[in-house]
Sequence to fold (682 residues):
Amino acid sequence: MSSDIDFSPVDVLIIGAGASGATAAWNLAETKMRIVCLEQGGWTNPADYPTTGRDWESRAQSDFSINPNRRQQPGDYPVNDDDSPIKIANFNGVGGGTVLYAGHYPRFHPSDFKVKSLDGVADDWPLDYGDLEPFYAENDRITGVSGLAGDPAYPAKQSLMPPLPMGKSGQKLAEGFDQLGWHWWPSDSAIATQPYNGRDQCINLGACIYGCAQGAKASTDITYWPEAIRAGVELRTWCRVKEINIGDDGLACGVTYFDEDGVEQFQPAHVVVMACNGVGTPRILLNSVSEQFPDGLANRSGLVGKNLMLHPYASIQGVFDEPLDGYRGPHDSIWSQEFYETSEQRDFVRGFTYETTRGRGLVATALTGVHTGRIPWGSGHHEAYRKLHNRIAGMVAICEDLPEEHNTVTLDPWIKDAHGIPAPKMSYKISTNSQNMLDFAVARASETLRAAGATDLIIESPLTSGGWHLMGTARMGKDSKNSVVNEWGRSHDVKNLFIVDGSIFVTSAGVNPTRTIQTLALYITDQIKKRLAHLFD
Amino acid sequence: MSNTIATDSLFSIEQRDALRLLARMIIPSTAAYNLPGADDDLIFADILESAKANEAQIAESIDFAMSHDLGSGVSIEQVASELEGHPAMAALVSLVMQCYYRDDRIMVSLEVEPRAPFPQGFDVPQGDWSMLDAVQKRGKIWRDA
Ligand SMILES: Cc1cc2nc3c(=O)[nH]c(=O)nc-3n(C[C@H](O)[C@H](O)[C@H](O)COP(=O)(O)OP(=O)(O)OC[C@H]3O[C@@H](n4cnc5c(N)ncnc54)[C@H](O)[C@@H]3O)c2cc1C
Ligand code: SF4
Fold:
């Protein structure tokens, strides 16, 4: 109720309670500053997650859909993705995307921060692997990461828990990789394989991307948030930020938001930290128009909303003659980074990661079969179904997307959310480099699946539903002319405005981003703590 | 008098009959596996109940099918060949699959325990981790930067 809310100025106001917002709140809490986080969605109750019911695969297509345009829950806002072959996927509520993420949890590699120097494309980051290394380790500790030390695709890093089981499908695919002499390794996962910090271990429910009812998957509503709240951070749910307001001094003075009752409120703040992801953050900045910032807040570079990177995915699945894991086990299993680093022999620069997939549920198997023409209507249905049941396994390729200014998040001129705030619009094209990478990834994966014994291949490239990695739309850099925030996350234009989410990525690497997003959030908030006395200089 | 049937459903009697016929066209019963089709009483009741969440789209699929002479004496095979794979049928096909493959009888016949995944979970074998020795022997593959 707004009458209980203290609207006096707060020291730090964080917008968004997802992966990066939670991490930032936790790290700043020890300063004893007054910290408030505004989140447009609510808390989820693990007892309500789809896997607690028989209709879990139906709910995965409705109230727990990964696509907000289909899910349409009160915390969601519409995203116009008509102009993108890859459709939006996110979650809006405490925990943000981590409520639904698969928990694939790779780090970036040292080369990922030096793309320009090594490969002559895009830009180098203004920091490197060494700068982030201690923060990776700290984030791993809070998150609880399972895996196996010794991966030859990475510099040495510790593993806190044993890896997830390979299962029958992981082993089958590993045999395929081995036959071709390729790299593979158990995936690093934000999934507890042993009881960890009050969380229980994974029981192989197999539907991690619809919420983990067991609490084994490290979504930030059960990792960072409980600790941050215990340390004094105030988290206000069902509060949707409309704009960040600016004072005559050119500093952010607070934010305007709609509260749970739909009433417009103003919360004054000395520092504003944005954590709304690569679509939500540029949306708010572009909606925050003033005389000083006619093109959107912190947008003197003109780069807010530009350079959207999505990681085009290819899905390459094999059909095997023998039963594999099917619906059992988490999505994460093993990965291969055989084609991660640039090679002059290929018609693209940079590279990708293969992450193997175990199988699918009964309904998803049926729909895959019907949509790809493998399961007919009528009398042939049952036999055809049995040829796919528990027999599909394969991999996805996560391709590094390079920043391109024509890939954008802008404001849709017509579509608005439930509060009348203009919705974002994604305009995105797959580049020739990415397309060549996708084609190569499909061809090589097909070889390994055949080597592993697959008798049929089911290919989707690009994976249209896979717009889950939202990066690059408020990039980081030392030069205010070609970046939005500086090397420690502060806006070049507004000296008390910080961004900690995936929008600050300079390049995307060929791995899932969240471990690096959270690590950067720790790094940036650490910089804030160190510079408190002269934060706005 | 309205021809809307006396349940919460908005479907007309004709639409409901057509839906049942479609369910049977998509998944008929099978003697080989001793299984009911999707038009089975229990499964069809689930289909009708579940259709409520997406009623408009399902009604569109049914109407589209009805416009192809469904139920007017044209052979089922002929109608099916025209409808199968058509985008207008996608929502209805999805609904039929969702309800059919959560029915106890179907799950048991596929050797799947008829229960929600949580809280029991499932067993997944570890696999042979010694296979990694060969990978490790091939040595470091990351680039210094
Ligand atoms: C299905 C799925 C699977 C995924 N799998 C993986 C994976 O395996 N590994 C991986 O690394 N990543 C994965 N991701 C991506 C991962 O979820 C994101 O990278 C991560 O959550 C991004 O963190 P963030 O802090 O940038 O934003 P988010 O976690 O998206 O948090 C943003 C928060 O801001 C809130 N917000 C936005 N606008 C406003 C506003 N105007 N007012 C108030 N609040 C607002 C949102 O409600 C949301 O809670 C997956 C995502 C999805 C959807
Ligand atoms: S497989 Fe493991 S991590 Fe995934 S939802 Fe189940 S218990 Fe959670």
Chain B touches chain A through 56 residues (CB under 8 Å).
